[in-house]
Design goal:
12 helices, single chain, alpha/beta, 347 residues, TIM Barrel, 20% strand
C-alpha cells in the first residue's frame, strides 16, 4: 500500500452541483474544467488535498499508484492534466485525439439523463489536433501514468483509417505511458465497423508492427490497448479476444458508450442521438468484461469502465475480470470524492 493524493472537495462539489446542473451540460463541463485549472494554478487544490490509502497495481508492465483512472473524453486536449491529477487518480487518459483538429458534431451534443444518472454525448471527436495536445502534455508538471487515446478524423474513410492511427501513434509515442486505440465511439460515422474481424485483424497487425519500430526508435516499450463497445454479442467478443491474443495487444478497455436505450426509455433526453454512459451502461459493460475475461484467460489485462458510480460498482468490475477501472460520468454525478470512495473499497 502507498499513499496518494485525493481531494476533499465533496462538500464543495455538493454546493456547486445544483448550479452546474442548471447549465447546459457542455457549458457546465467547460466551466468545471476551467475552474479546476484555475484552482490548480492558484494552489487551492494542493491545500485541499489529503492522503488516502491506495492499492498499487502492476498492469501492462506499468506500476499504477492506484487502480482508479480517469476515462478518455473528459479532457480531450490534455488541457487540465495537472488539475485532474490532483483529484487522486492512479492514472489519467486524455483524448480522443485525431491527426487534424476538428470541431465535432453541432451543438447541443451533450445531455443529462438525470433520473437514471446517465449522460448522452454525440461530440464526434471534437479536439484541437494531436500537435496541440502534445504541447499541453509537455507543459504539464504531471509525471504519473498518462494514457493517450487516439482516433481517426471524421472525413477519413475507413479503408484509410489505419493511416490516421499511425500518424497519432507516431506523434504521441514519446509522451504516452500507454496508447489507447479507439474504434468504438458511436459518434464518428462507421467507426465501429473497425471492430469487425477482417478490419480489426489488419488494423492490429499494422499497429503492432509499428509499435516494434517505435520501441526501437525511442528505446522504450509503450503498451497498446484497444477500446471496445458494449454493444457486442458474445460471438463478437470472442472474436475480438482471439485477435487481441493473436496480435499480442497489451490490454483492452471495456467499454465505451452504448447505443441502447432500453434502460432509460421514456426519460427526458433519452431519445437524443449519441452514446449513453453512466449508470445505465453498468450491467452491459460488466457483462462484456466477464465474457472477455473468460476468453482471454489472463493473457492480457482488462480496464473496466462504464457505470461506475460507487466503490461497489468498481468492485463489481474487478470481480468480473478487470485489473483497473476508469470513471467519467460517475465523476459528474458523484463528484471528486468518488475516487477516494473507490480506493477505499478496493484497498
Amino acid at each position: 500500500m502507498e499513499k496518494c493524493l485525493s481531494l476533499d472537495m465533496a462538500n464543495l462539489y455538493a454546493l456547486a452541483k445544483p448550479f452546474l446542473f442548471q447549465l447546459d451540460a457542455e457549458n457546465a463541463h467547460d466551466l468545471t474544467l476551467r475552474s479546476l485549472k484555475l484552482a490548480e494554478k492558484s494552489g487551492l487544490l494542493a491545500l485541499l488535498s489529503k492522503p488516502v490509502q491506495c492499492q498499487t497495481k502492476q498492469v501492462m508492465g506499468l506500476s499504477f499508484p492506484n487502480p482508479v483512472g480517469l476515462a478518455a473524453g473528459l479532457d480531450k486536449n490534455g488541457a487540465v492534466i495537472d488539475g485532474l491529477a490532483a483529484l487522486g487518480f492512479g492514472f489519467l487518459e486524455i483524448g480522443t485525439i485525431t491527426p487534424r483538429a476538428q470541431p465535432g458534431n453541432p451543438k447541443p451534443r451533450l445531455f443529462r439523463v438525470q433520473e437514471a444518472e446517465g449522460i448522452i454525448n454525440r461530440f464526434g471527436f471534437n479536439n484541437l489536433g494531436v500537435d496541440h495536445m502534445i504541447q499541453n502534455v509537455q507543459a504539464a508538471k504531471y509525471r504519473g501514468i498518462l494514457g493517450i487515446n487516439i482516433g481517426k478524423n471524421f472525413d477519413t474513410p475507413n479503408e484509410r483509417a489505419v493511416d490516421d492511427y499511425l500518424i497519432c501513434m507516431r506523434k504521441v509515442y514519446a509522451h504516452a505511458s500507454y496508447i489507447t486505440v479507439n474504434i468504438s465511439s458511436p459518434n464518428t460515422k462507421n467507426l465501429r465497423q473497425l471492430q469487425e474481424k477482417d478490419a480489426l485483424d489488419a488494423l492490429l497487425a499494422t499497429l503492432k508492427a509499428e509499435q516494434k519500430v517505435l520501441a526501437d526508435q525511442h528505446g522504450k516499450y509503450v503498451p497498446i490497448a484497444l477500446k471496445i463497445a458494449p454493444d457486442l454479442d458474445e460471438a463478437q467478443i470472442i472474436e475480438i479476444a482471439d485477435l487481441l491474443k493473436a496480435h499480442q495487444i497489451d490490454g483492452v478497455i471495456a467499454t465505451n458508450t452504448t447505443l441502447a436505450r432500453d434502460v432509460v426509455e421514456g426519460l427526458p433526453n433519452a431519445n437524443e442521438t449519441g452514446g449513453l454512459s453512466g449508470a445505465p451502461v453498468r450491467e452491459k459493460s460488466t457483462l462484456v468484461i466477464s465474457q472477455l475475461s473468460k476468453q482471454l484467460a489472463g493473457e492480457l489485462p482488462i480496464v473496466g469502465v462504464g457505470g461506475i458510480l460507487s466503490g461497489a460498482d468498481a468492485a463489481e468490475k474487478i470481480a468480473a475480470g478487470a485489473s483497473l477501472v476508469q470513471v467519467y460520468s460517475g465523476l459528474i454525478y458523484r463528484g471528486p470524492g468518488l475516487v477516494r470512495d473507490i480506493c477505499n473499497t478496493l484497498a
